[in-house]
Amino acid sequence: MNSLSIQQIKIVNQFTSWRFIFFLIWKLPMGFISGIRVKSLDDKQCEVTVPFNFLNKNPFKSMYFAVQAMAAELSTGALVFVHRSNKNTSIIVTNFESIYHKKAVTKIRFLCADGGRILTSLKKAEETNQPQKCIMRSRGYDTSGVCVSEFKVTWSIKKR
Predict the structure, then answer these.
(1) Residue 50 and residue 31: Cα distance in Å, rounded?
(2) What does the pLDDT look like over 43-84, one tens digit per residue?
(3) Tens digits of per-residue pLDDT, 107-160?
(4) CA gap 23, 4 in Å, rounded
(5) CATH for 6-159, among 3.90.1300.10, 3.10.129.10, 3.40.30.10, 3.40.50.2000?
(6) Spans of all domains in the chain
């Protein structure tokens, strides 16, 4: 971890410890049911995994697209939480794009390395009092390292 504040360390610990299961049950129950987990999180990147199992399968014997989308959004959203120091900031997803390259038939690892990008947008929103948009990318990789899906999540940031 690179120069995280005490507040940021607490947030990282909430996402990466056993307490995250309670967060999922309370705030994101479908994430709990799907088996989604935050494997690593710091100020620069987030890695989220989701297993390939009976509950996540579609009729075509691959992972349902919504499960992948949920994991991709979490990989970007966890970074938003790490950098969001001002609770008077309104943050919402305003656009979501996805591309699927290959059937997802194994555990999928989603990686977002846009921590710097969201930090810049949050600072700009606070300094200028103007709404900002931040496009964050997350890519899903299967167990052999092949990219199976790509996502662009647009976060809208506004100081209240």
Answers:
(1) 9
(2) 999 999 999 999 999 999 999 999 999 999 999 999 998 988
(3) 999 999 999 999 999 999 989 999 999 999 999 999 999 999 999 999 999 988
(4) 22
(5) 3.10.129.10
(6) 6-159
Closest residue by Cα to residue 12 from 80, 114, 108: 80
In order, the DSSP letters of 90-149 are EEEEEEEEEEE-S---S-EEEEE--HHHHHHHHHHHHHH---EEEEEEEEEE-TTS-EEE
pTM reported for the whole predicted model: 0.89
Q: What is the DSSP letter of 54?
A: G
| CA-wise closest residue to 100 among 137, 46, 147, 39 | 147
Task: Specify whether the CB–CB gap between 112 and 40 falls below 8 A.
Answer: no
pLDDT per residue as tens digits for the range 3-31: 777 777 777 777 777 778 888 888 889 99
